[in-house]
Amino acid sequence: MAIVRFQRSKERPRSLIIPLFAVSAAALALLWIFYSSAIRASLFSYASPMGAATDSQKVMDPAGLDWKYLYWGNRIDCPGKHCDSCAGLGHQESSLRCALEEALFLQRVFVMPSRMCISATHNTKGILHQPSNSSSDEMWAASSCAMDSLYDLDLISSKVPVILDNSKIWFHIVSTSMKLGGKGVAPVQGVSRVDLKENSQYSNILLINRTASPLAWFMECKDRTNRSSVMLPHTFLPMMAAKKLREAADKITKILGDYDAIHVRRGDILKTRKDRFGVERSLHPHLDRDTRPEFIQQRIAKWIPPGRILFIASNERKPGFFSPLSVRYKLAYSSNFSDILDPVIENNYQLFMVERLILAGARTFVKTYKEDKHDLSLTDDPKKNTKNWQIPVFTMDG
Ligand SMILES: *[C@@H]1O[C@H](CO)[C@@H](O)[C@H](O)[C@H]1NC(C)=O
Ligand SMILES: *[C@@H]1O[C@H](CO)[C@@H](O)[C@H](O)[C@H]1NC(C)=O
Ligand SMILES: *[C@@H]1O[C@H](CO)[C@@H](O)[C@H](O)[C@H]1NC(C)=O
Ligand SMILES: *[C@@H]1O[C@H](CO)[C@@H](O)[C@H](O)[C@H]1NC(C)=O
């Protein structure tokens, strides 16, 4: 923030006031640095899941601000149909990002679920044992992983302060909120973000307990076509990977050196269904074609010259599926680095987090879908579910 302010002051038109202004801006910037590092220091202690300091010390931070909290429940996308099952990592991240944006907007500490659900269809690593005779809570524990095994909460807290819902500080906040009664906790459903911020009925309350849309948490952010209200980019959570995942990705990118990368989504998104005439139809009619090696090679030729190292991240499980590309490129997969990955990867969500960091480190990165106007993509089919089931195309001119 300090830097932003300082740069803005530089852009002002020249005048005699400038030297004086610059001096005061510098002083202001310095003040900001001290101020924000004090806040950050206090946030880091907040974020520590096993928090060493005593709870009462943590209710007030050194800058004298008392923190207020935002809670969306203990499972992403629950209540609703996603309490026992769940979506893939990307969907859950959209939901988590939506909640974090609200916390940022309200300047409240976000209470993060301490575990993230792992979708069975997105985990082929098969480490999930699901005891046949267990309670739904036990099932949940078996099909989920610790949030801090995916994300670095200290890193997240440097942008949006978070605590975990199994931390001491959270239990302290819950008991304090109950003692305070109406001033302690406000149950909220369907109240706008602006109201939560501006209406004193909510703004002064220690804990806002939101019941989010039963469809999915990210629905709370759906109607925001206003771009200026989107506060965290899609890349925010992927870049917040847990330290051991970032370290593994670093080791691999160092070994790869100067490389390009493609992310090839196949698997579940290729699903077709038969229409009433028995004809197969797909929501992404060109995707199956566009993600086959022959078509990938034609498509990426203009962006990636032959001889380059090409890192491929994909959910395609057929061995050797991408081998035809080895005629032009030196292929590498995460499986080439099992000595680095096996000791740290426990499930497919962690693997995908490492792969995303490797993809992000490539000189040229081609995504499956175009998500942003600057993206290179393998297909021109839109990512968004068009609800339009079409006949898949496998020829070049289709
Ligand atoms: C499941 O648990 C119940 C009660 O705890 C027990 O009676 C039953 O035999 C168990 N079934 C299996 C298959 O373990
Ligand atoms: C938040 O609200 C839900 C639903 O009303 C309730 O079950 C839960 O106990 C509340 N949690 C807290 C910490 O107030
Ligand atoms: C867009 O969002 C910003 C920040 O939340 C707000 O100040 C502005 O009034 C909004 N604009 C419209 C057109 O809603
Ligand atoms: C990665 O492994 C494949 C075989 O699975 C091999 O063909 C390829 O050369 C390896 N790539 C690197 C960079 O070691």
UniProtKB/TrEMBL annotation:
What parts of the sequence cross the membrane? 16-35
Domain DUF7075 span(s) in chain numbering: 83-271
Q: Which UniProt keywords apply?
A: Membrane, Transmembrane, Transmembrane helix
User: Which GO terms of the cellular component aspect does the record hold?
Assistant: Golgi apparatus
Has UniProt tagged this entry with the keyword Membrane?
Answer: yes
Source domain of life = Eukaryota
* Protein name from the UniProt record: DUF7075 domain-containing protein
What species was this sequence derived from? Answer: Canna indica
